[in-house]
């Protein structure tokens, strides 16, 4: 995808609103993944903790890009509504909570892309579309991880399959 420079001049008031809401959701995701990583580590699941920390770092990169964009536009970044981290009794419950949050982030980026398209703001459309693409790919990874934990496991012993 072609990256357009940050536009100079007047910015439609919706753009800072989308950036601020996105920053709040990305920081909420950072907090959630950080909390969950510590929790699953305490449960004795170091591989799951490492994967959740990688998710946390990805969300931190998104927050950083949003912050840089806000500063380039001349306004102070403010994540106004940090959500509480959602936990659960087991890894599957945690991942379901993560998918809910990721789907909310995806919906926001979809809305922002469409709004920018209607406004004729190609630079911000590209910016939000790139974040959207990354979030969709990340969500697919979470869905696959969740599926791997919830699908019946089977063992093939000759001509008999055991679940």
TrEMBL record:
GO terms for biological process: intracellular iron ion homeostasis; iron ion transport. Pfam families: Ferritin (PF00210). The keyword Phosphoprotein does not apply. Keywords: Heme, Iron, Iron storage, Metal-binding. One of its GO terms (cellular component) is cytosol. SUPFAM superfamilies: Ferritin-like (SSF47240). It catalyses: Fe(2+)(in) = Fe(2+)(out). It comes from the Bacteria. Its cofactor is heme b. Residues 9-153 form the Ferritin-like diiron domain. InterPro entries: Bacterioferritin, Ferritin-like, Ferritin-like_diiron, Ferritin-like_SF, Ferritin_DPS_dom. GO terms for molecular function: ferric iron binding; ferroxidase activity; heme binding. Its EC number is 1.16.3.1. PROSITE patterns: FERRITIN_LIKE (PS50905). Gene3D superfamilies: 1.20.1260.10. Belongs to the bacterioferritin family. This is ferroxidase. It comes from Ectothiorhodospira magna.
């Amino acid at each position: 995808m072609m990256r357009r420079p940050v536009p100079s001049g007047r910015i439609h008031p919706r753009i800072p609103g989308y950036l601020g809401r996105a920053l709040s959701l990305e920081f909420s995701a950072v907090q959630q993944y950080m909390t969950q990583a510590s929790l699953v580590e305490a449960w004795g699941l170091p591989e799951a903790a490492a994967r959740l920390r990688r998710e946390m770092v990805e969300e931190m990169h998104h927050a950083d890009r949003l912050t840089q964009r806000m500063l380039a536009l001349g306004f102070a970044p403010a994540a106004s509504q940090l959500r509480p981290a959602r936990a659960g009794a087991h890894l599957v419950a945690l991942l379901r909570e993560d998918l809910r949050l990721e789907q909310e982030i995806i919906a926001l980026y979809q809305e922002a892309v469409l709004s920018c398209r209607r406004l004729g703001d190609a630079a911000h459309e590209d910016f939000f579309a790139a974040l959207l693409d990354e979030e969709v790919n990340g969500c697919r990874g979470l869905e696959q991880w969740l599926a791997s934990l919830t699908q019946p496991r089977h063992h093939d012993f000759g001509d008999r399959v055991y679940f």
